[in-house]
Structure to design on (578 residues):
């Protein structure tokens, strides 16, 4: 990446987002570097997905400066892979995983798509993406019938097939069992490092990704804290961010628990910046 | 309303065991040739559009579109315009309006159900207001189709609308598939998901309007939904499933026309009955019979 003179793939400088007359959050400054994983944490409705949508160019900033791949975010870039929350894959969805992945390569094109060199090249990209996520074995089965972990791998392949430089994942570990959470986050990290991709991952639980995360973005009460996990997920830092007595507890296995947020979310302060998911 | 199926039925000779003779007999009359031609065109379009209707879960919304089309067609008759004009305006208009209102509104069964019932009532009012000669049979033709009374001119119109419909689907095919299967990713990658939804409902409106002569507005959904639903159970590859859906829709139509010719009951009845039975059979066989697993493995 250095050869192109860009060390950072995306940067926010003192950015704020408003939806309607409501400030979702403000004062966010962070950068995404190639080959690194950034986790976005925070309570429900704090605007984690809004950060992804901002970088995708689907939501404009209300203040500050946003640069994605050296430009303001542009809606529809093939250089960004996106995996939305895996909420709605219909178990009856009558389409193979492979076809879903292929759409990541040709789904924005017009017309029917005739066989030819370009089509063969796209199918090669699909095969490459499928083997990168280890989904080749079940790529020809109906995606609705697969397990959560298998579906997540296929969605990851769909995001990778356009050979992106940035990868945005929205709650990729939700509704996976613990083993799959670890496997998927390790997979994402390996891919990020091999392909020098900058990964931004929204999650509500830091523990499965604690060992692979380079940077943490913590969003709460309309404010955004950025730093190394060890610096941000501390009693002092989070209490200051929430302006409330939040405690970070470590158990004997090294797992981290943030205590005191439940009350914070249930009885938010006067800001009105919690609640709603920012969509 | 007394059901009069005068134009929808004909009692042909009993079928012999000689297939060539039977086909020759079937196609002996111009009206039967017209019916086969129009039916085939409509079936091809329904097979293609139906794949996306089923994939996007629009069966009920699309059905409402066709009912609104009935009000449009009878309204057109009332003010002395060709029914097809009113039908086109209302189906495409209603479909686009639904698309604009967005999923939040038309996704609601209650809203759709009420609009659907109101449209049928409105259509019935228009028929009563018209009170002209043959108004009831015209209303019946709109509701249940009039495939055996199709003229060469009708076929040209059907062919024209069908070509536009298929062309539009061809243009939007990959984006429509992307938006149907992974809407959020498609949106992030720059596909105009919202607009595409409106356009697709408009295309569905066109397909409904052009099929009215064959199946009528009430029954088009037998042809639009059943073949596509069956095809999706047979193949998980979109292009294959669409092709299978078209083949099934065409076979349904030909079978229905043939049975209607020999047994004298309405084409629409046979068409919907075949769709119903075929769907039941596919569902019953659905779990995973060996032949279907093999087919899926290949397809």
């Amino acid at each position: 990446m250095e050869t192109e003179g860009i060390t950072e793939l995306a940067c926010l400088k003192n950015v704020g987002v408003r939806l309607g007359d409501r400030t979702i959050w403000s004062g966010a400054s962070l950068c995404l570097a190639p080959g690194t994983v950034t986790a976005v944490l925070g309570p429900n409705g704090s605007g984690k997905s809004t950060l992804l949508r901002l970088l995708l160019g689907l939501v404009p900033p209300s203040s500050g400066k946003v640069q994605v791949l050296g430009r303001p975010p542009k809606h529809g870039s093939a250089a960004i892979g996106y995996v939305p929350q895996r909420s709605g894959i219909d178990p009856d969805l009558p389409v193979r995983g492979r076809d879903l992945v292929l759409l990541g390569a040709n789904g924005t094109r017009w017309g029917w798509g005739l066989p030819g060199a370009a089509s063969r090249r796209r199918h090669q990209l699909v095969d490459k993406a499928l083997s990168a996520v280890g989904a080749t074995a079940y790529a020809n089965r109906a995606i609705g019938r697969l397990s959560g972990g298998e579906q997540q791998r296929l969605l990851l392949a769909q995001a990778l097939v356009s050979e992106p430089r940035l990868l945005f994942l929205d709650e990729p570990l939700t509704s996976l069992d613990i083993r799959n959470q670890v496997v998927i986050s390790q997979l994402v990290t390996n891919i990020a490092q091999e392909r020098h991709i900058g990964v931004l991952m929204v999650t509500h639980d830091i523990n499965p990704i604690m060992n692979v995360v380079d940077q943490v973005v913590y969003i709460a009460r309309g404010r955004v804290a950025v730093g190394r996990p060890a610096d941000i997920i501390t009693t002092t830092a989070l209490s200051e961010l929430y302006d409330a007595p939040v405690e970070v507890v470590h158990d004997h296995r090294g797992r981290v628990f943030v205590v005191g947020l439940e009350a914070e979310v249930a009885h938010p302060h006067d800001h009105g910046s919690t609640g709603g998911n920012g969509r | 309303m007394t059901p009069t199926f005068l134009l929808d039925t004909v009692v042909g000779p009993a079928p012999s065991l000689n297939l060539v003779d039977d086909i020759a007999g079937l196609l002996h009359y111009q009206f039967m040739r017209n019916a086969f031609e129009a039916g085939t065109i409509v079936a091809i379009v329904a097979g293609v559009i139906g794949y996306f209707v089923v994939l996007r879960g629009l069966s009920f919304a699309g059905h409402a579109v066709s009912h609104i089309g009935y009000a449009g067609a009878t309204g057109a008759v009332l003010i002395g315009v060709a029914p097809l004009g009113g039908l086109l305006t209302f189906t495409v208009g209603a479909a686009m309006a639904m698309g604009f209102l967005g999923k939040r509104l038309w996704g609601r069964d209650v809203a759709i159900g009420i609009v659907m019932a109101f449209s049928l009532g409105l259509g019935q009012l228009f028929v009563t207001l018209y009170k002209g000669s043959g108004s009831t049979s015209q209303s019946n033709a709109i509701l249940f189709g009039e495939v055996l009374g199709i003229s060469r001119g009708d076929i040209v119109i059907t062919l024209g609308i069908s070509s536009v419909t298929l062309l539009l689907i061809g243009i939007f095919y990959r984006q429509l598939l992307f938006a149907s299967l992974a809407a959020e990713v498609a949106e992030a990658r720059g596909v105009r998901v919202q607009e595409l939804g409106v356009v697709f409902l408009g295309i569905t409106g066109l397909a409904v309007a052009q099929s009215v002569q064959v199946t009528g507005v009430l029954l088009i959904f037998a042809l639009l939904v059943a073949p596509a639903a069956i095809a999706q159970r047979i193949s998980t590859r979109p292009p294959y499933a669409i092709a299978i859906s078209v083949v099934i829709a065409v076979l349904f139509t030909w079978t229905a026309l043939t049975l209607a010719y020999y047994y004298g009951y309405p084409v629409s009845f046979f068409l919907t009955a075949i769709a119903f039975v075929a769907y039941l059979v596919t569902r019953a066989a659905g779990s995973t019979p060996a032949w279907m697993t093999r087919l899926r493995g290949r397809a």
About this structure: Chain A has eight helices and eleven strands. Confidence is low (pLDDT under 50) at residues 1-5, 266-279 of chain A.
